[in-house]
Specification:
23 strands, alpha/beta, nine-stranded mixed sheet, about 30% helix
Length: about 600
């Protein structure tokens, strides 16, 4: 599907395509351009045939003539003759040359934040939104207050603004927001999720003043040449604003829980992810799961601020699904955003960095000593770690923390613990070698090559930008990797992520690192086979293999044969979770 069809305005207008009932067998329909032909039999089994059935087994593409599902699992993969003779009473699904793949697995996004954005002003630039100037931003804020009858004194939140895509090429200021909304506290979240801007009432509500000191790993921006606040808070300085926002918007979790699942399902995802999850949100997710409200699997990461409490809690369950929900491990944030110039690098940015005069290499969000101790605690308890790191400086910190922890605990350095550096966008070749040596598994973020590839070339130079999210090199090294959207940073659409990995084309049309272009099969591995491995689910998901869960997605074109620049235009036709249809694209 095109990027314009999967953007958040669809969510905010609640205009998602209708979700079909969860029948065990597909409902009988006539053939259309968008749907496979289904014929219902008198068995719980279903035979899929006459399409491109890509099993995702092995290092090279393998195809099958037919696939059979039964009782929520894949019962058979092989020839059509055997499938139809062995399951002669099964429902028949003629794929009509559509493509059948394992259901997509989300390596990293923010499910709860997706729900929360439904209660905020969409300030994204095109193609995700319509805000490309500060004037349009302020107009959207005023319209949101009026349209939603928000009283004076109530918080107003916006999300997704990107100063690099605004006409003014800068962040909005508190004074500008004050003029638009003088009677409400306001906080606007940057597209990176690593900074934001508050107006005067918002700053006052969070008790941030001209006398406030920068917290470790954060920055409270000032009007140049003075101590006056300009409204921008970065990294750890934004944490109080985000915590308060989550408290204010907490009702959205329940209000939009099903709608958020539908958004993931319509994009072919049968397993979703929630990064850095507070204990109360974990409790909420588990209650939803126990009430039977999950139609997809949901994998959460606990926040590192709760690590001691979580490890001490004897009732806290790790790595085990309970009614479709599990907490896989713990999330740590080691640095910031490259497009926001807070990602931590070993070498400076080559363009000016606000509030920094020399050696401007970004901000580590945690000290090396603190990171070391986090690793020791987690490794000692076999707690899987997922560490946000963008700049190579933060990646160095992760490698040092790993080496410190294995020495301290006496464990093998290459133990199968599947530590995941999340993003690892600007990992150097020597750091990729360290990942392989230590059995670490990076989760790359190739969508950046489209959304901010031009910005990275400007701020970091071509050498660093061109080696960002280096899937091609990682694959040649035999390194396991995934590739994610980080929604709400970029839309969750896995097919757009495949397109970005294969093409690496920026907004301006420039190729960002031709040598790091992935093959379509490599890009698909990153959201199927390898993504299952990331969650220790390689025995139940990720490939079309007998005995695994019948988590499937049907596409209207074959990603392996379509022109590479058309990959993002492929549509999800049907999403199937454990044999049950949870999304069906409406017929045109």
């Amino acid at each position: 599907m095109t990027i314009s069809t999967i953007i958040k305005p669809t969510l905010l207008s609640l205009g998602l395509a209708s979700i079909m009932g969860c029948a065990t067998s597909p409902t009988a329909t006539s053939a259309t351009a968008n749907q496979p032909t289904s014929q219902t039999g008198d068995s719980s089994a279903t035979v899929y045939y006459n399409g491109n059935i890509i099993t995702m087994e092995g290092d090279n593409p393998q195809m099958a003539e037919a696939l059979v599902t039964q009782a929520g699992k894949i019962a058979y993969v092989g020839t059509l003759d055997t499938a139809q003779s062995k399951y002669n009473n099964a429902a028949q699904v003629n794929l009509n040359d559509k493509t059948l793949l394992p259901g997509f697995i989300d390596p990293h996004s923010h499910f709860d934040m997706v729900s929360n954005t439904m209660g905020q002003v969409n300030l994204n630039p095109p193609p995700v939104g319509k805000v490309d100037s500060i004037d349009k931003m302020l107009a959207a804020l005023k319209a949101y207050k009026k349209d939603n009858n928000i009283a004076d004194g109530e918080w107003i939140y916006g999300w997704g603004y990107d100063e690099s895509q605004l006409t003014e090429q800068r962040h909005p200021t508190k004074g500008e927001i004050d003029k638009a909304l003088p009677n409400n506290p306001v906080y606007l979240q940057h597209t990176s999720g690593h900074m934001g801007v508050a107006n005067s009432k918002g700053l006052a509500a969070m008790e941030v003043t001209a006398d406030s000191k920068n917290p470790e790993g954060g920055n409270i921006a000032r009007v140049k040449g003075s101590s006056e606040l300009n409204g921008l808070v970065q990294e750890t300085a934004m944490y109080p604003f985000v915590r308060h926002m989550l408290e204010v918007l907490e009702p959205n979790q329940a209000k939009f829980f099903e709608k958020t699942q539908d958004y993931y399902a319509e994009n072919g995802l049968t397993t979703a992810h929630n990064g850095s999850t507070a204990r109360n949100t974990i409790e909420f997710f588990q209650k939803q799961a126990d009430a039977g409200k999950l139609k997809i699997d949901l994998v959460a990461l606990a926040g590192v601020s709760d690590l001691d409490e979580n490890l001490a809690d004897k009732d806290f369950v790790w790595k085990t699904y309970q009614n479709g929900f599990k907490v896989q491990g713990t999330k740590i944030v080691a640095d910031g955003s490259p497009q926001g110039k807070t990602a931590y690098f070993s070498q400076p940015y080559i363009t000016p960095v606000p509030d920094c005069e020399k050696d401007c290499r970004g901000l580590p969000s945690v000290s090396q000593d603190a990171l070391n101790e986090m690793f020791v605690k987690a490794y000692a308890r076999d707690n899987q770690l997922f560490i946000h790191n963008n700049g190579d400086g933060a990646t160095d910190m992760i490698i040092k923390a790993h080496e410190y922890a294995v020495k301290k605990t006496g464990q093998a350095a290459d133990k199968d613990r599947r530590t995941v550096p999340i993003h690892a966008q600007f990992a150097r070749p020597d750091q990729l070698q360290a990942f392989k040596k230590y059995n670490m598994m990076p989760s790359f973020f190739t969508n950046h090559t489209y959304f901010w590839g031009d910005v990275h070339v400007e701020n970091l130079g071509e050498k660093r930008a061109n080696f960002s999210s280096p899937i091609a090199t990682a694959d040649k090294m035999g390194l396991k990797y995934t590739n994610h959207s980080d929604d709400t940073v970029t839309p969750v659409d896995p097919l757009f992520t495949v397109w970005s990995a294969v093409n690496r084309t920026s907004r301006s049309g420039k190729i960002i690192g031709k040598d790091q272009r992935a093959s379509p099969y490599q890009a698909l591995k990153a959201i199927t086979t390898n993504a299952a491995y990331e969650y220790y689910e390689e025995d139940s998901k990720g490939t079309l293999t007998q005995g695994k869960l019948a988590d499937l997605v049907i596409l209207d074109a074959n990603p392996l044969t379509i022109a590479p620049n058309k990959l993002k235009d492929i549509n999800v036709v049907t999403t199937i979770k454990e044999g049950k249809t949870i999304y069906q694209r409406p017929a045109k």
